[in-house]
Amino acid sequence: MMAPRGPKPKPTRLKVLAGTARAHRLNPVEPTIEPAVPDAPEHLSDEALAEWKRVTDEMAKAGILSALDRGTLAAYAQAYGRWVAAERALRVMAARDAVTAGLVIRTQSGNAIQNPLVGTANKAMADMVRYAAEFGLTPSARSRVSATYFQEADDPFAWFE
Length: 161
Prior knowledge:
- It comes from Citreimonas salinaria.
- Pfam families: Terminase_4 (PF05119).
- The protein is mostly helical.
- The chain has one domain (12-21, 38-160).
- Helix content is 47%, strand content 4%.
- It contains five helices and two strands.
- A two-stranded antiparallel ribbon has the order 1-2.
- Helix 3 (70-96) runs antiparallel to helix 4 (116-134).
- The model is unreliable at 147-151 (pLDDT under 50).
């Protein structure tokens, strides 16, 4: 199976918000999903849950959140929680090591290597930013969305008429 070519298709809702929706380019059978705030999964860490609550409030105001987004949003929030945990652990190690600020550790054989927490923090941060872009939560993703085209109506395509 070949991977699709070109950029990922953008949902119609985001096209409308960005002002790039063109009637001839829209999927006439795209499913419409009711905006909703899903319940947070129980497995989220405290930091992840706090981030979940923060972003769901904002996303609900923008009308870009549905119950179907629960898994992806949980992945974003958990990546955020892991990033915070790794950075906190690095800060503790940095307090004990003024020279390398905890970024380098010594192995049992005495070799200096990058602290594995740096890799954990970097991976969690990269995952978090990737998921955030899916929801328009990064500055560059948000710059492509304009709420001036959003209309509260029963028919999201009413402004095309």
